[in-house]
TrEMBL record:
It holds the Pfam family Bac_luciferase. This is Alkanesulfonate monooxygenase SsuD/methylene tetrahydromethanopterin reductase-like flavin-dependent oxidoreductase (Luciferase family). InterPro entries: Bact_Lucif_Oxidored, Luciferase-like_dom, Luciferase-like_sf. The keyword Ribonucleoprotein does not apply. SUPFAM superfamilies: Bacterial luciferase-like. GO terms for cellular component: cytosol.
Amino acid sequence: MSPVQVGLGLWAMRSTARRPRPWPALYEELREDAVLAESLGFDSVWLAEHHFWYDGWCPQPLLAAASCLGATSRLRVGTAMHLLPQHDIGVVSRDVGQLLDHFGDRLDLGVSIGYRDEEYDAVGVERARRGRRMDGHLDRLLGDHAGRLASPARVFVGGIAPAVIERAGSRGMSLLLPNTLTAVELAKRRTAAQASAVAAGRAAGRVGVMVDTWLTSGADEAEVRERIVAHYREYTGAWFRLRGEPAFDRPDLLDRQSERNRVSAVVGDGERVLAGLTELRDAGADTIVLQVHADASVGEHRAVMARLAEDVLPKLRGTA
């Protein structure tokens, strides 16, 4: 397995009702956080994309990535996820090419088909066609930048469905799995992706996973988990459809999903956090994105970044 790379996320530039912030300040803090992450020894930072919601989100993560890349010299910058089928592939290919020209092999392009009808309706794309558009867009990107993208493995495909695993594995691309998977579930997706790669005569890509992570004392653990749950209840309720219905209309299913977020979060002191992340690493994750940014103040998440770098990062990498 490849040496583990440890990144930080997920910068979405959201100004929420629970924590409203001026958007210019959020983008400035993103650059500052990227510089800090590099200085602390992390491998990457990751940016999100969504559209047409009150909290703003980041509509063009490749542009935000350019800002982070320009402020750093070693740090990788990833998208988690760039909603590729919603975009004009000619524009995306041009932007990726410019990032490669200016910053070399420091872009981790994470792509996903997305899940909101409203986003597809707004850009005039039928949601039913999103899988086919994704396949065509990925093939165009690899064709346009053959020999310039370091390898297809620097393209991460997000999701857990069998079609997603096949899409990534058959092209030698990497996976970026969501934050609610157990180590056993992660290992199953890794095995499936490797099988698809072998069947296509390709080397398997990396296996990434996003993890809600927070270092805290035992007395504060329950409070941190409640904050994580509150964050995801708003996000899931507003954005997801559960069994075909808006999530806020299915409180029973929303409660079940929120409990998965609570249980899957890796929260505690250094030893507990290290144990949780090591379990995922040993299950096959070689790219781990520690989600420390959701609904935390600037001072809070930067303090946790520093503590993770000191207490967890060397041991997780096996360099302590």
